[in-house]
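Appendix B. One record, verbatim.
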Amino acid sequence: MVKKLIALVVALAAIGSLFALGEWRWIGHVGKPVAAHTTAVKARDLTLVCPGSAFASGGSSGTNVQSFGRTGSAVVDYSSNLPGGVSLVSSPLTGPAAGQGHLGDTGNKLANLSTQSSLAITVRDQSSSASQASTTFTAQSYQIAADKGVNGAIGANCQSPASDSWLLGAVTTVGRESLLVISNPAATDATVDLQLFGESGPIDGAGLNGISVSANRTVVLPLAGYAPQQHALAVHLTSRGAAVASWIQSRTVRGTVSAGADLVGPAVAPAGNLVIPGLLKRGTKDALDLISNNSDYQDLTPSVQLLVPGTKAATVTVQVIGIGTKSIGTVLQEQVQPNTATTFDLTGLKDGDYSVFVHSDQPVLSVVKLSRTKKGSTPITDFAFLPAVAPMSSPVAATAANSAVTKVSIANGGSQSASAVITDLTTGAKNSVSVPHLGSTVVSVTAGDVFAISADRPVSSSLVADFTGSLAVIPLQDFSNSSGRLAVLVH
């Protein structure tokens, strides 16, 4: 009996040694392996979330700086081209009981609706017959704000929710307000964590983690409460439980004068080369006069904000390149420390049309701030943020607002010139233009029409909307969901 026990112990020890040495192999099937079965997977229904109207601080008394309420209404300009059996469903993000509405197909014509709350619009496709891309459905949001301290043209894409986003452009100094707006269009709650990066590096503080954003709701957070007195501030947002849409709403107040507002959405992924179209500079003389008399107008000078999200410092070159011989650009080269939000002025630019090309030896994030100025007894100023735009060659569709003079800035960061085609989807008219290497071109589009841009090589494009001196700039992005084929192994 003792010998049997000793033999059993030796055998178990031998098996254990095989596990420890990694020599054990388990055979999981008998006979020939089962071949994988390939099945078609439909594209996920495309949902775009529109930001709704601007938030004003003060509450009912106008003095509570921690209370925020909507002011005015935003107009959502949208267009669709839907196959039979495909529909648009809209959902205001005001709670589970808000309900849904149905929007009719526009047939590549512009339609609009007014909303105060954030709004989710979904392309419902049971038959997998629709391409879930901007040529099927696109939407942009505009508001001309002139109430409760918020003044200016506010424009933004309706965006696809994400679980990881970078947002740049925040400022929290005196007279400058930046709010983080987070909308959750899902039926489940989201938990959001924030990382903040200021002028001196990462900013730690209470309340940055575990922020609850309930299903079908919007949350607004004043960034000055976490990081006051920052001339440059970047936000890294991650969410669990549900993907969310996010924007930074910025506004400027000089004394008692509201002096511009804007929304900026998530940045493109960090990269060594970034293209920023749409720097259409106007009102330079008026801006210089205001700056010379009052230092609080210094931010009328165009500027570029940079963030290196890695662990190494980066050598960054910013090229501002104009169109034609009269738009003489500028170049600056800077050493940018990691995890530090840094802003540089782009000085010496005259009125003209430019694009910005950022080159870095480390992945970098960037956004440009552009102001419009009209001097008078009460100066009128407004500003817009110009994000870097991912280069694309396939068609990207957008709408041109009825009430704005709209131009499209197309920039080419590639090594060869590109040929771009602007197609008016409403009328069918086409316009072909050449876009030089490290250069750009500007094309006017008809107000109230829907258009698409395609090219033989990837280019980056932004829509520049001028509302009688107020400015909105919207990057042209194709928020798309792709179908495909999936290999499934069935035992």
